Prior knowledge:
Layout: E1 8-12, H1 16-28, E2 33-37, H2 50-53, E3 58-59, H3 67-70, H4 75-84, H5 87-96, E4 101-103, E5 108-111, H6 116-130, E6 133-135, E7 142-145, E8 151-154, E9 159-162, E10 164-167, E11 188-194, E12 196-200, H7 203-206, E13 212-219, E14 226-233, E15 237-239, H8 241-249, H9 251-256, E16 261-266, H10 272-285, H11 301-310, H12 324-335, E17 337-346, E18 352-357, E19 375-377, H13 391-406
Parallel strand pairs: 1-2, 1-10, 2-6, 10-19
Antiparallel strand pairs: 3-5, 4-5, 7-8, 8-9, 11-18, 12-15, 12-17, 13-14, 13-16, 14-15, 16-17
Helix pairs in contact: 1-6, 1-13, 4-13, 10-12
The protein binds flavin-adenine dinucleotide (FAD).
Residues 12-18, 37-40, 45-47, 49-51, 55-56, 139-140, 168-170, 180, 349-352, 379-381, 390-393, 396 line the site of flavin-adenine dinucleotide.
Amino acid sequence: MKNFCVxxxxxxxxxxxxxxxxxxxxxxxxxxxxxxxxAGPAPMQKLALTGGGRCNLTNSFAFLKSVxxxxxxxxxxxxRALQVFGPERTLDWFGAEGVRFTLQEDGCYFPxxxxxxxxxxxxSRAMERSGVEVRLRSAVRxxxxxxEGGFRISGDAFSVDADRVVVTAGGSVRRDFLSFLEPLGLExxxxxxxxxxxxxxxxxxxxxxxxxxxxxxLSMPGxxxxxxxxxxxxxxxxxxxxxxxxxxxxxxxxxxxxxxxxLCVNWLNVSQQECRAMLxxxxxxxxxxxxxxxxxxxxxxxxxxxxxxxxxxxxxxxxKELGASALNRLCLVLTDFSCAMAGKYPHREEFVTCGxxxxxxxxxxxxxxQRFPGLYFAGEVLDIDAITGGFNLQAAWTTAYIVAMSLKIx
Length: 410
Ligand SMILES: Cc1cc2nc3c(=O)[nH]c(=O)nc-3n(C[C@H](O)[C@H](O)[C@H](O)COP(=O)(O)OP(=O)(O)OC[C@H]3O[C@@H](n4cnc5c(N)ncnc54)[C@H](O)[C@@H]3O)c2cc1C
């Protein structure tokens, strides 16, 4: 079977980036056929699951010092790209389609409906109205550049020629995932998982399952990797924003070391001097009280008692009884607590792929392949990924917009 049409744009992958890009392209070029090829039985199946079914579709970025904090891979490209199509424009676009939003205290935006299905329906309706052709169960097996120009896209039972191709196949750690790109010889950064929780081999900590530390710093000794924020103690180890961020920052390094590495926890995210001053303040304010009863309030009581134990201080010991060496030990336990990662666990169902098409293969301005004019990439298929909080979907909207606005048809 073979079709040929010179005014055809094919988008590979009907996920967040693919559907958004196809809508923008069709609205921009109504006379051009825009065809979306999707391997699965329905478009946007992953989008429907995002944010635990609520879809955290962007972030205010208000709590970041820089874009680099959100995008461990692709920050340079994203810094510029977000100026073209950032969170405000994302909210405006979906707002014009009738979506209302809720902004959480942590900067995450969700639809007011708290329903990811609403975002899927909005995009589906826009595709239908603009005339995007969606072909489901059409997994692309091969993408090749034709000598006379244009591209041939083939699957098990189809072959389509197109003048322009946008690849938005998302991310996966499956080895054959991007094998359809092999004929092009593009550099692919090997994919590894990102956004996971830490299995920690420290039995006493597991007994503290459920404890929440409001502001901790988790780091990997001997590396540059560290992350701070809320840390949750679970029955398997560490979860919460600090752990997830660290899994993202160190995704490749952790994959290389088999997810086994020493970890260091600063339970208060303060310097040793600051910690020492806090302990001395407690000691002078509550000399008669037991170390368990007068504590640093930022830490849950159960955890505080356990940390006293790690410092060799009995919970009944009074503050006035602690000498300099006990204070030093406690200060070290609070700011430089050693444990070890023994593996990884999923974070609910959410994950993203670190790796994909190397950014050196595309123009940062247009996301067009440097070596194959007319071929574009958007979304997670690129070597761009982010921490949790709506930044991954924002990357999908942003890169899809850039492709749709920079794609030339003449
Ligand atoms: C459970 C879960 C929850 C998440 N929650 C959030 C969240 O709340 N906020 C956030 O910012 N990020 C979230 N993420 C990450 C976010 O969903 C992704 O980063 C985003 O969906 C990427 O969009 P994409 O269009 O690039 O890829 P995808 O959405 O993965 O879409 C790619 C599409 O391409 C298709 N495809 C792949 N290969 C082929 C092929 N060869 N031929 C044809 N079709 C193909 C796939 O079937 C898929 O439909 C979550 C991820 C998961 C797994």
